[in-house]
UniProtKB/TrEMBL annotation:
<feature type="transmembrane region" description="Helical">
    <location>
        <begin position="77"/>
        <end position="97"/>
    </location>
</feature>
<feature type="transmembrane region" description="Helical">
    <location>
        <begin position="273"/>
        <end position="296"/>
    </location>
</feature>
<keyword id="KW-1003">Cell membrane</keyword>
<feature type="transmembrane region" description="Helical">
    <location>
        <begin position="174"/>
        <end position="192"/>
    </location>
</feature>
<feature type="transmembrane region" description="Helical">
    <location>
        <begin position="46"/>
        <end position="65"/>
    </location>
</feature>
<protein>
    <submittedName>
        <fullName>Malate permease</fullName>
    </submittedName>
</protein>
<feature type="transmembrane region" description="Helical">
    <location>
        <begin position="339"/>
        <end position="361"/>
    </location>
</feature>
<dbReference type="InterPro" id="IPR004776">
    <property type="entry name" value="Mem_transp_PIN-like"/>
</dbReference>
<feature type="transmembrane region" description="Helical">
    <location>
        <begin position="136"/>
        <end position="153"/>
    </location>
</feature>
<keyword id="KW-0812">Transmembrane</keyword>
<dbReference type="GO" id="GO:0016020">
    <property type="term" value="C:membrane"/>
</dbReference>
<feature type="transmembrane region" description="Helical">
    <location>
        <begin position="302"/>
        <end position="327"/>
    </location>
</feature>
<keyword id="KW-0813">Transport</keyword>
<dbReference type="GO" id="GO:0055085">
    <property type="term" value="P:transmembrane transport"/>
</dbReference>
<feature type="transmembrane region" description="Helical">
    <location>
        <begin position="241"/>
        <end position="261"/>
    </location>
</feature>
<feature type="transmembrane region" description="Helical">
    <location>
        <begin position="16"/>
        <end position="34"/>
    </location>
</feature>
<dbReference type="Pfam" id="PF03547">
    <property type="entry name" value="Mem_trans"/>
</dbReference>
Length: 368
């Protein structure tokens, strides 16, 4: 299949097109609702809080409710390693990129470049676009990858923006927020499920196909008692209803947020435009380039599912916490606000492009 055929196949894939249009249309719906007054000035914050404290923790925990095998464990560890290394790389690379800027401007631009909205913007899109193809794998990989983000955001990000040493409140924020707690709880259950006390559970296992229908056989299997998807379905089921809310609620909140701010003022800021190009184009492209080399040399090989997850999460706008740091510590709050707005618009525009690029890479067979 030549390059033209790959592009044509990608652009006519209804699963890909539907995922892109769902994202864009629901964001536009949030924007419309805010402009028409259907959403008030508190709606975006309320929706964001629901996503961050309810839906995303459920999504993160549910992702680990699956059997473990050596291959998935190895890839998860590779994603975790890259999730830590990439922030070190971005911290180093951002220095020469913004070298012509001085003082607070450089500090703010570097921190905003290093930290994107991976949790609120990236995970809902990645799971919505690629979840149907790879099942819960995407949510699992996204949760593991995001561990490094949390560690660096509340340590390096805080120290750099505040000029102070690490404080206890940030250590608390790093480890005791609902998403991190759910991620680590699920991760530990997933890794150690063979060592935990086991419970006999009767499950349906496909036995044969008769008249085009799958015939199941009921067998008894053992699961860790904390695998509530098998041992306590009455407890797990509510989580399966809450987890899918992350994507639509996040997109509505993004649209409502865009409906509250003035694009005209931000559009005249050339520095914010430069930052936006670096953030939504340069950062994900850098990830693709380095990961392609690491995979080709078998130094840190990852699958296409992992690549897609990482690129989507890296092609996100300014992290809310990073922008809040700039405002709280008076590190050019206006620049941070303009950069946040333009990068959000840029991410909305570029996300479909990156999804198409990823599909082209997938069909070229660069990653398994």
């Amino acid at each position: 299949m030549n390059f033209g055929d790959i592009i044509k196949t990608t652009l006519t894939d209804m699963n890909i097109i539907s995922a892109i249009t769902s994202t864009v249309f629901i964001i536009l719906l949030g924007f419309f609702c805010r402009k028409r007054g259907i959403f008030n000035d508190h709606t975006a914050k309320i929706l964001s809080n629901v996503v961050l404290t309810v839906s995303l923790p459920c999504l993160a925990f549910n992702a680990f409710m699956q059997d473990i095998n050596p291959e998935s464990l190895k890839e998860s560890m590779n994603v975790l390693i890259w999730g830590l290394l990439v922030y070190v790389i971005l911290i180093l690379v951002s220095k020469p990129i913004f070298m012509k800027f001085k003082g607070d401007d450089q500090t703010t631009l570097r921190v905003l470049t290093v930290f994107g909205s991976t949790t609120f913007f990236g995970i809902p899109i990645a799971t919505a676009v690629y979840g149907p193809q790879f099942g819960v794998t995407i949510a699992l990989l996204a949760s593991v990858f995001n561990i490094g983000y949390r560690v660096f955001l509340y340590s390096y990000g805080y120290i750099k923006m505040s000029g102070l040493k690490m404080e206890a409140k940030n250590v608390k924020s790093m480890f005791l927020n609902p998403i991190v707690l759910a991620t680590f709880a699920g991760l530990l259950i997933w890794i150690f499920q063979k060592s935990l006390p086991q419970v006999d559970v009767t499950v349906a296992v496909p036995k044969a196909v008769e008249n085009g229908k799958i015939v199941n056989e009921m067998v008894v299997k053992q699961f860790a008692f904390l695998r509530i998807d098998q041992t306590a379905p009455w407890l797990f089921k509510p989580l399966t209803y809450l987890a899918p809310l992350a994507s639509p609620l996040a997109w509505l909140a993004i649209g409502a947020t865009l409906g509250e701010v003035s694009f005209t003022k931000a559009a005249t800021d050339k520095v914010s435009w430069f930052y936006t190009l670096v953030k939504v184009i340069g950062v994900p492209a850098l990830n693709i380039a380095i990961l392609a080399i690491l995979t080709a040399t078998n130094i840190l090989p990852i699958s296409f599912a992992a690549l897609a997850t990482i690129v989507i999460m890296m092609a996100t706008p300014t992290a809310t916490v990073a922008a809040a740091y700039a405002i709280s510590f008076d590190k050019d709050a206006l620049l941070a606000s303009n950069a946040s707005l333009l990068s959000t618009l840029g991410a909305v525009v570029m996300m479909p492009v990156w999804i198409i690029v990823l599909e082209v890479i997938n069909k070229m067979g660069i990653f398994n």
